[in-house]
């Protein structure tokens, strides 16, 4: 690991060249196809954490997954950044699946549970405290601190999925095309494995639409 | 996972890891409408194209029988590939996961585009734990954006990264959109900084061919992003106090190669920036 961490930018350019050679060696047209455009099946919304690289953990190649990563994989309702990503991925790229992926040992979630003033980070992390408040009874009933922390990480993913489903783009596309389907995952750093939280997309969509419906028969198709 | 639910999407079936490729997609006769949609075609409403890719039309060359033998749909295959990756990584780097579980000390913060063709850790030839990442539409850095602001703050102040990279790329859909004039709803306010750069460089951009102009805007957008990064107090302090480096890169999706821009500021620029933006506790 130390060797890996002591890379200079020069080494990185060498790594990049090696990667290019490995790709063109296996498939000389690899980059020509990418140059023609992208049509990924997935939008991945995950944490910025360096230990959770989207393509690696999903075993996917360049061109296969559209990626947004922020602190603690949040989907705040008023965040123009993530809302633009969802809009573009659904309406222009027509992704078939949207994956919100959290991970255990998330520093962002931990920070949100810590009584400390983190300046600029406060408003961002406050969204996680809101998730705690929404599930206060369940979380308070978990005696073991690390189990409670893990559960909050899962509930935070579920809440982000719910916020994805609140968007007009997702509701209208699903009505017209039966995609995208939204999934919630958690990545476990200890063994590198993904856990599907089985959020129950259709039931969640139905529930969300009761109040947040932004789709009607009159919408453009 | 609700496999039954997923199984109704034949557009995603019959693409095993082995046969899957962008070329394979064409040979299966799946309409490649979204391939060109990144250009924001002005003639067709953006929503229309998806109808061509509905399950019925995309099954043309795929018999249901193939589905079973090919290892089912792309979604379950991603979860399966994760298991393979985890096992292989544990074999090749037995210390990696135990080390990752104890914390992260990345040296690099990557601010790049969400585009699927720009997977940072992969194209840098690095491993999990090496690169802290924020990716958004067209790698735009709005000065007041809390999302990228929180990422930069956390990476610089808490993780103490040594390098910040702002990376743009060729054939960027966001840049193409900002070079056009089609109304795009919520994307419009997001793309606004690109239009500001376009406005400031209108004569230069108009003197170039469309392709050259788009590439120029990619570069100017990276430079703009670097300015926004270097206007943050935490970044300025880290540059001065511990030698944090800030880099501008362009990634060529057509060749896979990274190119570093010359982003050396003149002493006068640095002086003005420090005067206007440096803050103390």
Automatic annotation (TrEMBL), chain A:
Pfam families xref list: Pro_CA
Catalyzed reactions per annotation: hydrogencarbonate + H(+) = CO2 + H2O
Textual note on the cofactor: Binds 1 zinc ion per subunit.
Cofactor(s) listed: Zn(2+)
Chain segments annotated as coiled-coil in the UniProt record: none
Record function comment: Reversible hydration of carbon dioxide.
PANTHER family: CARBONIC ANHYDRASE (PTHR11002)
Name of this protein: Carbonic anhydrase
Species this chain originates from: Penicillium malachiteum
TrEMBL record, chain B:
Cofactors required: Zn(2+)
Family as reported in the entry's similarity comment: Belongs to the beta-class carbonic anhydrase family.
Gene3D superfamilies: Carbonic anhydrase
UniProt name for this protein: Carbonic anhydrase
Record's compositionally biased regions (Low complexity): 53-64
Keywords: Lyase, Metal-binding, Zinc
GO process annotations (BP): carbon utilization; cellular response to carbon dioxide; cellular response to oxidative stress
Function: Reversible hydration of carbon dioxide.
Gene Ontology terms, MF aspect: carbonate dehydratase activity; zinc ion binding
Binding residue positions for Zn(2+): 113, 115, 169, 172
Disordered, as annotated region: 50-73
Enzyme Commission numbers on file: 4.2.1.1
Cofactor, how bound (note): Binds 1 zinc ion per subunit.
Reactions catalysed according to its record: hydrogencarbonate + H(+) = CO2 + H2O
Cellular component GO terms held in the UniProt record: cytoplasm
PROSITE patterns xrefs: PROK_CO2_ANHYDRASE_2
Entry-linked Pfam families: Pro_CA
């Amino acid at each position: 690991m130390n060797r890996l961490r002591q890379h200079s930018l020069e080494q990185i350019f060498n790594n990049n060249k090696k990667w290019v050679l490995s790709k063109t060696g296996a498939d000389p047209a690899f980059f020509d196809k990418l140059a023609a455009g992208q049509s990924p099946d997935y939008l991945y919304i995950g944490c910025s954490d360096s230990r959770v690289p989207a393509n690696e953990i999903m075993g996917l190649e360049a061109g296969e997954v559209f990626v947004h990563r922020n602190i603690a994989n949040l989907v705040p309702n008023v965040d123009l950044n993530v809302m633009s990503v969802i809009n573009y991925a659904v309406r222009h790229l027509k992704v078939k699946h949207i994956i919100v992926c959290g991970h255990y040992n998330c520093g962002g979630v931990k920070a949100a549970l810590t009584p400390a003033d983190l300046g600029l980070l406060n408003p961002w992390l406050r969204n996680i405290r809101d998730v705690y408040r929404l599930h206060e009874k369940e979380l308070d009933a978990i005696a073991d601190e690390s189990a409670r922390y893990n559960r909050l990480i899962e509930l935070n993913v579920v809440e982000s999925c719910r916020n994805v489903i609140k968007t007009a783009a997702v509701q209208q596309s699903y009505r017209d095309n039966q995609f995208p389907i939204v999934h919630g995952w958690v990545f476990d750093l200890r063994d590198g494995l993904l856990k599907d939280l089985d959020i129950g997309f259709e039931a969640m969509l139905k529930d969300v639409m009761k109040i947040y419906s932004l789709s009607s028969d009159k919408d453009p198709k | 996972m609700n496999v039954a639910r997923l199984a109704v999407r034949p557009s995603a079936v019959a693409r095993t890891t082995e046969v899957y490729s962008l070329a394979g997609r064409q040979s299966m006769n799946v309409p490649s409408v979204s391939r060109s949609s990144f250009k924001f075609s002005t003639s067709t409403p953006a929503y229309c194209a998806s109808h061509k890719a509905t399950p019925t039309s995309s099954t043309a060359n795929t018999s249901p029988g193939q589905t079973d033998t090919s290892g089912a749909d792309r979604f379950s295959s991603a979860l399966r590939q994760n298991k393979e990756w985890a096992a292989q990584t544990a074999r090749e780097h037995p210390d990696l996961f135990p080390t990752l579980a104890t914390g992260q000390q990345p040296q690099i913060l990557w601010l790049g585009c969400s585009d699927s063709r720009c997977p940072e850790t992969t194209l840098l030839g690095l491993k999990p734990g090496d690169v802290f990442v924020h990716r958004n539409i067209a790698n735009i850095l709005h000065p007041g954006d809390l999302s990228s602001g929180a990422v930069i703050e956390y990476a610089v102040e808490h993780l103490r990264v040594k390098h910040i990279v702002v990376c743009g790329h060729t054939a960027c859909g966001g840049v193409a959109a900002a070079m056009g004039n089609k109304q795009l709803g919520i994307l419009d306010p997001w793309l606004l900084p690109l239009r500001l750069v376009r406005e400031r460089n209108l004569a230069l951009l108009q003197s170039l061919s469309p392709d050259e102009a788009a590439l120029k805007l990619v570069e100017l957008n990276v430079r703009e992003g670097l300015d926004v990064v270097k206007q943050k107090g935490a970044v300025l302090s880290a540059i001065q106090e511990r030698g944090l480096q800030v880099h501008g890169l362009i990634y060529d999706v057509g060749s896979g190669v990274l190119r570093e821009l010359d982003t050396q500021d003149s002493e006068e620029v640095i002086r003005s920036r420090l005067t206007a933006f440096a803050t103390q506790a």
